[in-house]
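Journal club prep — side note

Before the paper discussion, L.F. wants everyone to see what a predicted structure for a comparable chain looks like in token form. Sequence:
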Amino acid sequence: MNEKKLIAIIGAGESGTGAAILAKKQGYEVFVSDFGEIAEVYKRELSENSIQFEEKKHSEDTIFQAVEVIKSPGIADKAPIIKKLQARNIPVISEIEFAGRYTQAKMICITGSNGKSTTTLLTYHILKNAGLNVGLAGNIGKSFARQVAHENFECYVLEISSFMLDNMYQFKADVAVLLNITPDHLDRYDYKMENYIASKLRIVQNQQADDVFIYCEDDPETVAALKHCNLKSKDYPFSIQSKPVEGAYLDNNQLIINLKNQNQFTMSINELALQGKHNIYNSMASGIVAKVLELRNESIRESMGNFKNIEHRLEHVARISGIDFINDSKATNVNSTWYALESMTTDVVLILGGVDKGNDYNMLKDLVKSKVRSIVCLGKDNKRIHDAFEDDVDVIVNTFSAHEAVNMAYHMARKGDTVLLSPACASFDLFRNYEDRGNQFKKAVMEL
């Protein structure tokens, strides 16, 4: 291999495979290495593109010849291969960093602990319906690098996780959105909130005066962090507690967006497709993006009214014997579960549990006391859930499959109740991922 042109890619999922295809197109020698098993669809694609790859090992002699290494976001910096690369001063970057070099498209980048996927999809929906030549990528759908290799979009809406931000250096968001900062993935950040906050604030790095930053003025962690941030871009806050001069706010149940030199946008929150307090924030963020891009109010209003939310995010599955079943499997942290419970208007049988990422369940206590009839644990180790809520609900039971959890919840619920799967935990103890957990939940509900 030509040492000057070798790019090594660690991880061969959607992100890694997309990066490999783009690197090959840009004339690099490419070597893909995955310590686990590579899915057949990606092995076939790498072979068809004449890209060398390996699985179930890392051939360090080859990888260490690379001028640069692209790391899939799921691989932690503390992984042995990454530590060895860093010790050799071989640059390790994200797929987003790499792909950003090869497109002139406008970058609309959305991050936050909660609401990223919903806001990203809503923003994409608004822009696409307005006729923009727009791509959707990042932590969602087809990889950004794959699309840069094959498509010619004029702008991208990117869902950016903290894991992606950690290995971004020169990449710049033209429009950056930070929805909120709440404890999540602290296992990846040495259990230090300040490390996680620093990661999220990388969304504004490299921004200049003609770029835009959109953030929630009601989020205390964001506001506190911004006091120590040398922000160069034009900022637009959104709030339901105050009325910023420029940005978005509520006035008598009207969502208002004010930007200088533009017609004011107004829309009743009752007409929004996304209901619930947390979704008002998501709609505000997306609406500001649309106004920054100078889209017509009528077009924005229509899109915000007809948007269909994503699977596994407060997804209504069925009503059986007067009991509603809601799939919120994408709620993999405590704050997401808080939002789900906050939006409930009935008594709840709550299905919780999975791989605990260092959760602090205290923030759920008041909502559990006021809304939750009983808790069904779905996970291998449920001790921390029992410890947290044993004084707040009458019944907590353990289950070890979606089928068992659904049946137990169905028998515990009463007519008019909601059975809510909102686990507050990752899914990897019993399921492949949160989609698998949500799909098994839905299948079990339909079998009742």
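L.F.'s comment for the group: The mean pLDDT is 92. Keep this in mind when we get to the figures.
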